[in-house]
Amino acid sequence: MKPAPVVLITGAAAGIGKATALAFARLGYRLLVTDLKAESGPPLLAELKAAGGDARYVVADQAKETDAILAVNTAMEAFGQLDVAINNAGTEGDQTLGLENQTDANVRRTLGVNAEGVLWCLKHEIPALRRSGGGAIVNVSSVAGHVGLETCGAYVASKHAVEGLTKAAALELACFGIRVNAVAPGAIQTDMIDRAVGAGDTDARRAIEGMHPLGRMGTPEEVAAAILFLASDAASFITGQSLAVDGGWLAR
Ligand SMILES: NC(=O)c1ccc[n+]([C@@H]2O[C@H](COP(=O)([O-])OP(=O)(O)OC[C@H]3O[C@@H](n4cnc5c(N)ncnc54)[C@H](O)[C@@H]3O)[C@@H](O)[C@H]2O)c1
């Protein structure tokens, strides 16, 4: 019997990464999941196991090349193959700073995790995917990878970088049978959006909801569904694309 496919997901302890990990687990994938804190591992692994997934957890900071190496090596040692990689981890940074008030720390961290981090992931996922005979990569971008957002310059720059990396990687890897796509979520109901606009029924939340023609934020599960589609054989002729999961935001 063919062994179950293997997926690596960064930033899987919460939000979109967790919903995506649970969706792959329900399909019977074996999973290598990462996040920042050791204590996030046991509860995540328990949920993935209950959903049907054989999973391993690695404490890893997506900003660090050494942690990308660790995650990929652990997946290969545990499972012997890598078929799908979801580069999801991201930070919103400080979205209250205008460009005139940017700090070295905010720019370094936001670009380090969201942009350079995706590049380090790609660098080390590629040889493993090649050894496994090809596969699919999905990078988690944002509507901020397509349009500007006031006071979010570092985040916008980082997500535009993800869009560019996705296209460059798609071209470079097509000859190896590796497809590379992105999803571009609008505002999605996760801890990240709560930090950005407040958890209650705030004016900021209503303003963000109003950016979506569908009149609401999305759910992590709605983004996970798009990621699963792009990673699946149903998307076998799709590469170098960015699929907006944004309730119509970018259609305006
Ligand atoms: N929530 C939104 O509205 C929204 C919109 C567009 C794009 N996104 C993108 O989706 C992705 C996931 O966001 P989310 O809303 O689920 O966020 P979240 O903050 O709810 O969850 C992110 C998870 O990633 C982990 N993480 C953060 N930095 C990390 C790092 N350096 N290395 C490893 N793990 C790290 C966190 O600990 C957390 O478990 C991000 O790339 C984000 O930019 C989110």
Report the CATH topology name: Rossmann fold
Q: Overall pLDDT, averaged?
A: 97
Summarize the main sheet.
Answer: 7 strands, parallel
Query: Cα distance, first to last residue?
Result: 49 Å
Per DSSP, what share of the residues sits in E-state strands of 2 or more residues? 15-25%
The geometry reads as globular
Radius of gyration: 17 Å
| Tally of helical runs | 8
Q: What's the β-strand tally? A: 7
The helix/strand class is: alpha/beta
Q: What's the CATH H-level superfamily name?
A: NAD(P)-binding Rossmann-like Domain
Number of domains: 1
Bound molecules: nicotinamide-adenine-dinucleotide
Unreliable sequence segments: none
- What is the CATH level 1 assignment? Alpha Beta
Task: Describe what this molecule looks like in 3D.
- This protein is of the alpha/beta class.
- The chain has a single domain (6-251), classed as NAD(P)-binding Rossmann-like Domain (Rossmann fold), CATH 3.40.50.
- Helices cover 44% and strands 15% of the residues.
- The protein contains 8 helices and 7 strands; from the N terminus they run E-H-E-H-E-H-E-H-E-H-E-H-H-H-E.
- Strands 3-2-1-4-5-6-7 form a 7-stranded parallel sheet, sandwiched between helices.
- Helix 3 (65-79) packs parallel to helix 4 (104-131) and helix 4 runs parallel beside helix 5 (153-173).
- The relative contact order is 0.14.
- The mean pLDDT is 97.
- Nicotinamide-adenine-dinucleotide binds next to helix 1, strand 2 and helix 6.
